[in-house]
Amino acid sequence: MFKLRILYGKASFSVDVEPNDTILGVKTKIGHEVKAQALRLRLTCNENTLVNSSTVGEYGLSNECTVHCTIDATMTIHIKEVDGNRIPIMVESTTTGLQLKHELLTNQDKYFKSKGYKELKVYMQKHYYAGAELQQFKTLSEQRVFNESTVDFFFMRKSKMTLTIDNYTGQQLVLPNLNSDTSIWQLKNLLSKQYGIKFDKQILVFNGQLLEHGSNVVTSSYRLYDGAKLNLLQGLKQGIINVTVNVIPLQIIVEFEVDRSNTIGELKTMIEESLSGRGEEISRDVQVLFFPLSRFEDNQKTLAEYYITNGSVINMVYSKMRISVNVLGGYKSKFWIIGSDYIKDLKNLIHEKEGFHPNTQQLLMDGRVLHDKNTMDWYKIRSEFILDLTLVKP
């Protein structure tokens, strides 16, 4: 254990840390000292912003290192490239999809360094969150992109690409040096010629989407990219399969044995029950299930209809922000909200769950009284924030 020196405004103090402490853990310790939400704090050292999920040791911080701490009104999202690399970026909840593209374009040397994106343009960027493409003129808040969310980034440049196809027999097929304007019809012809698979027997699926032949171009119609992996199915047969659900906000992996005739709604119920056994109350109503380029929005559709196959990894995020309220009696009560909700809406939720009439409630964040007429976004309230409840005379 050693001490870090923290500079916060004009104040200076030390906190005890371990090399394996996460930056978020350090922020929590500092938050106790300065009476602020850990997720609102921004830590920098040698002009580098310290990322929540990294550790003290990873930044090489040692005894009496000086770390600067400020209150940050922005939120952090992570841009995930196709190779799995995640880039933290500071944005506002009011940032639009188009502004996000311009931010990456303007600072591409900072974010991508030697990635070879020299010809990067706004129109070449595709951003997906929870399987849906971000709309350019809507804000991140409107599209339910919250603090610490991961946005999938695809660079749709015109170049040669290699596709890998997992055959239903277990064989892995490779189609190299494809042009970006290759059509699905041409793709199926190549599989027929090179691997002897009859054209009319090919059911090609990518990220839960059926690739229908015709003049559809693989890059523009289906967002295929260099290194993408497709599935070649024998048919839409039912049967028992194993799927993995990646619960991203909780960093939990859950495995299920399901039938392809099960619906998405039934899978959500299984997830709710499994997480409940781990002490997490995540109702099916706030679950968003998706592949990186496809969201499973219809609870009545079956896994087979979404082309979910054996071994599929399904991602899950929340459709709302989860916050905690310190209720009288010393325990935290959790609530689901969105950025456009008003403080009075939260008070109504507290009334329904805890029984305190809205007129007797006073909500505070970091000692600041929250007023009914303002929204969560107005106060920069983020997912996993903690508010305090006191009772007042009506």
From TrEMBL:
PROSITE patterns: UBIQUITIN_2 (PS50053). GO terms for molecular function: mRNA binding. The keyword Ubl conjugation applies. Residues 1-68, 75-160, 161-239, 241-317, 321-394 form the Ubiquitin-like domain. InterPro entries: Ubiquitin-like_dom (IPR000626), Ubiquitin-like_domsf (IPR029071), Ubiquitin_ubiquitin-like (IPR050158). CDD domains: Ubl_ubiquitin_like. The keyword Transferase does not apply. Keywords: Isopeptide bond, Ubl conjugation. It comes from the Eukaryota. This is Ubiquitin-like domain-containing protein.
